[in-house]
Amino acid sequence: MTDTQLDTQIRTQLVNHEVRYTSGRKRVVAAIVAADGPRSAAELHETLGRGVPLSSLYRSLSVMADAGVLSPHHSSKGVTRYELSEWLVGHHHHLVCTSCGAVDDIELPTEAEAALERLVAGAADTGGFTSTGHALEIEGRCSQCT
User: Given this structure, which CATH class describes domain 91-146?
Assistant: First the structure.
């Protein structure tokens, strides 16, 4: 998908939720697109510099997550990281370094994804729950920290 197509889809989604696609929000999206995985508000603020106040950044992240443009991921250490929602970038999972905090996107082979979907459906059935999707975050230590 080209940057223009992505921008158009995000704009349409935000307009459908009665949210303006401001220049500040465009900068946040650009920083997330340029990142190699989900980023926290603090990491994004460092990337964006002082031109975007932290309070505005938090508000933009919240508004865009509520509109379905961004997906928040909550770590076991209480840090929330954001990335573009799967409807924009495709289904994937994450490797999360518990030492340095690095988050890498991974796509599972088709057979592994199918097995994971069966496990999720089975777990949901056990609880009388209807699954509509899943997300897998594997925690451990990255190659740099090992």
Answer: alpha beta
Q: What is the DSSP string of 15-29?
A: HHTT----HHHHHHH
Rounded CA-CA distance 142/146 in Å is 6
Q: What are the structure tokens assigned to 70, written together?
A: 């961004």
Whole-angstrom distance, CA of residue 13 vs CA of residue 49: 27
Indicate the pTM of the whole model.
Answer: 0.81
Domain chopping of the chain, boundaries: 1-90, 91-146
**pLDDT tens, position by position, 29-46:** 999 999 878 999 999 999
The mean pLDDT of 50-70, rounded to a whole number, is 93
> How far does CA 74 lie from the centroid of its chain?
10
Assign a CATH topology to domain 1-90. Arc Repressor Mutant, subunit A (1.10.10)
pLDDT value of position 11: 96
Task: For Cα atoms 47, 50, 14, give the angle at the middle one, nearest 5 degrees.
Answer: 70
